[in-house]
Amino acid sequence: MAAAPADRGDLSAAVIRPDGIVAWAAAPGLPADTAALATALRTWFGEPHTRAPNGQQGEPGQPAGRESIGQRRGEV
C-alpha cells in the first residue's frame, strides 16, 4: 500500500514517528519551536554524530575535527 501526503495547510513542517504519530509540527507564519524539534529529533534519531575532517565518524555531540577517545588511545 502506498501512502499519499495529506493536504495540511495548517502545517509548514512536521516530524512523523514511525507509528504515524506527529512527534513535532510547525504552523505556517509562526516561529518554530526549535527546542521541541531538537528534543523530538534526539528522541527518535538519537544524538547527532559529527564527521572528522578525514571522513571518519566522530562521537555523539563531538565537534568536528576532534579526536575520539579511541583515536587518542590508538584504538580502532
Can you tell me about this structure?
With 76 residues, the protein is α+β, with helices and mostly antiparallel strands. Helices cover 21% and strands 21% of the residues. It contains two helices and four strands. The protein has helices at residues 34-45, 69-72; strands at 13-16, 22-26, 49-51, 57-60. The strands form two sheets. It has a two-stranded antiparallel ribbon. Strands 3-4 form a two-stranded antiparallel ribbon. A hairpin with a 5-residue loop joins β3 (49-51) and β4. The longest helix is centred in the middle third of the chain and has 12 residues, at 34-45. The chain is extended, with a radius of gyration of 18 Å. The model has no long low-confidence stretch (mean pLDDT 74).
